[in-house]
């Protein structure tokens, strides 16, 4: 515990912990003298309020009251870590799956560099067909609700131990990306090597690659739903919307004449039973591995948050009770100090004995109808002045 | 000091300060309070999902396998057999010379009754129609309309010919068209010719939209000959062999539709086929195979789909059993707090 420290010393203590103990440090302060400490730490939190806005302007996060720190760390900080991990790992996974299918194809083209997919598929894959759902996860995913996050602060340890972004997690995801790319590529290629239709006609390269791309988009989007702990209406809309956007795109692209190989490819595809048979088979087989892994992991090697989820699975979703509400649930003391702070006189930054005169404050208090408590030195002074003639208090 | 006065005071002051409130406008979206379902993957769900998948996949697999098994296919590799023995050591000289006799007769035996339509394919192996330079070497614009005759940008070296010092475009230009397959097959049974229908072998969209009915071949195969010659009086939209060939295949081993036989073939019949062995696959050790095949609702003779569905459905049911077994052996009650890591090793909180 340090007291009577200058701002420079505050910063030095923070650097000492930061470099010496090699921990992630967070410092919180509300005054101008806290600015150097806030800047020295890894995470600086400023409290906006009576002492001015200097701390807020120098900080990474600004909160209004000190008690909001619990929410910042245990609720939003934790969710933020979870969401970032999911978004980053998902991005790697979906691009790995997509690119590996192209990689397997190079073995069949005499290593000439012929691409498996059409240029537009590749360009729009990350822009339209798989972009929006992962944004939804990044915004809304919650493993446990806010009130549970505060009830089990030990869950915060997941971030400290880096549970969701360890090498093991990333390697598992990469393995399943490899597995899925092999499934998609080989199933589509092996099943279209001879005629797939009763008309006996054969597919060409663009038919096969459009079929494979179709399976990839569906698989990758469904995989995202498997990754979510919370599924809102927006998740359904974005996942369904992305898949729908793909169908709309390919119907247009292969419907409007362009001097490229894709013209009419999709219409040929959907006129065969093969298309639907493959569309049922490939995503299910591709996601089977992940599904099994998740089932086994949750049953035999559960994470803490999963157990907490199960413990409270029957509780209704009282999500509005978790996050802080400002101004509605203040204690009477807090309400009074808030009201006193709103009095015109108190807005002045000059605090001190000279400005605490009871007449000054009590006048405004009585005008506003607020009960301003008596200052202790005032009570003492009046007690000692009992023998003197009383001057009228009212103005 | 009475609570009433305090409350009343607070009410009026809050009424006075409401216009200064900095509280953000409430919406469920911005406060992350959207109603959500929080799915938990309990063993019950896992087992249900696997059973469901198994129940759906196994019948589909059986149906596909049954259909594929009923398809009859005859395959006959002829590129080695159809070189006369005197040229066996110098196949290149044989195939490139225009004087040699390219006719070759082979006999095929029908293993099971084949119902019409019976599709005739030629299969090439080690032929990379998916090579990058090859796939690029065409001009779809030129194929579609006579007005785009001069659009031969990507077709070189088979793009233009010099005719009296003027560059005239080759129609159709490019290596794909230039290397068109030109072996022919004539079938006969008991000295009676079997008709092969060569109409309708290309996809309808190709015939109607991709290959124009006003585009006629010009200056085609005028330099080094790479494959078939085209009749200059027939528009491209009716040259179905060309259309089928130009739909480039995805793999180096591919087959393309040659024609349809529209009569039934009985079991054990001996079909005689006279092959004109024109196409040069000898310079790159490619293989040529003649294939006759019936089809089913799922296509030709490919057990892959049936086997994949059956294997996977069976695997799911096996997973159900092993999951139930594992769950019985090592159960974990749902939502049991004793499994929390800080309850399992209480001093874990002090360590990092």
From TrEMBL, chain A:
Compartments reported by the entry: Endomembrane system; Membrane
Keywords: Magnesium, Membrane, Metal-binding, Transmembrane, Transmembrane helix, Transport
Signal peptide positions on this chain: none
Bilayer-crossing regions: 87-105, 120-140, 169-191, 203-225, 237-256, 262-288
Gene Ontology CC, one term: Golgi membrane
Alphabetical list of Gene3D superfamilies matching this protein: HAD superfamily/HAD-like
Keyword DNA damage part of the UniProt annotation: no
Topology within the bilayer: Multi-pass membrane protein
Record's keyword annotation contains Transmembrane helix: yes
Sequence ranges assigned to domain P-type ATPase C-terminal in this UniProt record: 56-302
GO biological process, one term: Golgi vesicle budding
Molecular function GO labels: ATP binding; ATP hydrolysis activity; ATPase-coupled intramembrane lipid transporter activity; metal ion binding
Primary location group: membrane
PANTHER family given in the database record: PHOSPHOLIPID-TRANSPORTING ATPASE DNF1-RELATED, PROBABLE PHOSPHOLIPID-TRANSPORTING ATPASE
Name this polypeptide is given: Phospholipid-transporting ATPase
Provenance organism: Actinidia chinensis var. chinensis (Chinese soft-hair kiwi)
Lineage, top ranks: Eukaryota, Viridiplantae, Streptophyta, Embryophyta, Tracheophyta
Automatic annotation (TrEMBL), chain B:
UniProt keyword Transmembrane present: yes
Residue stretches spanning the membrane: 45-67, 307-329
Cell compartment(s), UniProt: Membrane
Keyword field contains Membrane: yes
Major location (coarse): membrane
Family, per entry: Belongs to the CDC50/LEM3 family.
PANTHER family per the UniProt record, alphabetical: ALA-INTERACTING SUBUNIT (PTHR10926:SF72), CELL CYCLE CONTROL PROTEIN 50 (PTHR10926)
Name of the protein described by the UniProt record: ALA-interacting subunit
């Amino acid at each position: 515990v340090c007291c009577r420290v200058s701002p420079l010393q505050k910063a030095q203590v923070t650097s000492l912990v930061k470099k010496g103990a090699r921990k992630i440090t967070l410092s919180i302060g509300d005054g101008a003298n806290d600015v150097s400490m806030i800047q020295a730490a890894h995470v600086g939190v400023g409290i906006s309020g009576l002492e001015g806005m200097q701390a807020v302007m120098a900080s990474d996060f600004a909160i209004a009251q000190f008690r909001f720190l619990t929410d910042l760390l245990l609720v939003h900080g934790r969710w933020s870590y979870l969401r970032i991990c999911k978004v980053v790992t998902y991005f790697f996974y979906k691009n790995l799956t997509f690119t590996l299918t192209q990689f397997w194809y190079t073995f069949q083209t005499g290593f000439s560099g012929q691409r498996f997919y059409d240029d537009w598929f590749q360009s729009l894959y990350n822009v339209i067909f798989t972009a929006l759902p992962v944004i939804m996860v990044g915004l809304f995913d919650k493993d446990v609700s806010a009130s549970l996050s505060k009830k089990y602060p030990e869950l915060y340890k997941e971030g400290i131990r880096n549970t969701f972004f360890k090498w093991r997690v990333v390697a598992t995801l990469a393995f399943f990306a490899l597995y899925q790319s092999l499934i998609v590529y080989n199933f589509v290629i092996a099943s279209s090597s001879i005629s797939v239709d009763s008309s006996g006609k054969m597919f060409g390269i663009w038919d096969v690659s459009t079929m494979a791309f179709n399976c990839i988009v569906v698989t990758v989007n469904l995989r995202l739903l498997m990754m979510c702990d919370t599924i809102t209406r927006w998740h359904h809309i974005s996942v369904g919307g992305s898949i729908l956007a793909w169908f709309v795109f390919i119907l247009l692209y292969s419907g409007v004449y362009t001097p490229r190989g894709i013209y009419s490819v999709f219409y040929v595809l959907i006129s065969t039973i093969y298309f639907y048979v493959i569309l049922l088979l490939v995503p299910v087989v591709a996601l089977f591995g992940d599904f099994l892994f998740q089932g086994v992991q949750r049953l035999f090697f559960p994470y803490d948050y999963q157990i907490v989820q199960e413990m409270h699975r029957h509780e209704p979703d009282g999500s509005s009770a978790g996050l802080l509400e400002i101004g509605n649930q203040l204690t009477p003391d807090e309400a009074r100090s808030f009201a006193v702070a709103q009095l015109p006189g108190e807005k002045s930054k000059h605090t001190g004995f000279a400005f605490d005169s009871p007449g000054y404050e009590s006048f405004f208090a009585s005008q506003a109808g607020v009960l301003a408590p008596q200052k202790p030195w005032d009570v003492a002074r009046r007690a000692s002045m009992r023998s003197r003639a009383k001057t009228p208090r009212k103005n | 000091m009475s609570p009433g006065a305090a409350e009343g005071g607070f009410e009026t002051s809050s009424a006075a300060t409401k216009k200064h409130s900095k509280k953000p406008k409430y919406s469920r979206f911005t406060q992350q309070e959207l109603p959500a379902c929080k799915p938990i993957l309990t063993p019950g769900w896992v087992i249900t999902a696997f059973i469901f998948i198994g129940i759906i996949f196994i019948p589909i697999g059986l149906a596909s396998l049954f259909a594929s098994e009923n398809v009859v296919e005859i395959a006959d590799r002829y590129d080695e057999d159809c070189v006369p023995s005197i040229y066996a050591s110098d196949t290149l000289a044989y195939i490139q010379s225009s004087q040699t006799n390219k006719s070759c007769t082979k006999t095929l035996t029908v293993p099971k009754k084949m119902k019409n339509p019976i599709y005739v394919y030629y299969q090439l192996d080690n032929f990379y129609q998916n090579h990058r330079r090859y796939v690029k070497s065409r001009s779809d614009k030129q194929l579609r309309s006579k007005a785009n005759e001069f659009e031969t940008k990507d077709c070189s070296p088979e793009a233009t010919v010099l005719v009296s010092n003027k560059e005239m475009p080759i129609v159709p230009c490019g290596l794909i068209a230039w290397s068109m397959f030109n072996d022919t097959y004539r079938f006969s049974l008991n000295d009676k010719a079997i008709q092969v229908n060569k109409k309708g072998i290309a996809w309808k969209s190709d015939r109607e939209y991709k290959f124009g009915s006003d585009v006629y071949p010009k200056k085609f195969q005028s330099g080094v000959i790479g494959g078939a010659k085209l009749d200059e009086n027939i528009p491209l939209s009716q040259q179905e062999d060309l259309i089928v060939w130009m739909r480039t295949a995805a793999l180096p081993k591919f087959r393309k539709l040659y024609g349809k036989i529209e009569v039934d073939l009985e079991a054990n019949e001996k079909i005689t086929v006279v092959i004109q062995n024109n196409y040069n696959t000898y310079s790159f050790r490619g293989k040529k195979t003649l294939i006759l095949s019936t089809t089913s609702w799922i296509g030709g003779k490919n057990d892959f789909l049936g086997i994949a569905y059956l294997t996977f459905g069976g695997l799911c049911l096996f997973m159900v059993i092993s999951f139930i077994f594992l769950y019985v052996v090592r159960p974990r009650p749902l939502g049991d707090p004793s499994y929390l890591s800080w309850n399992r090793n209480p001093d874990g909180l002090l360590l990092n």
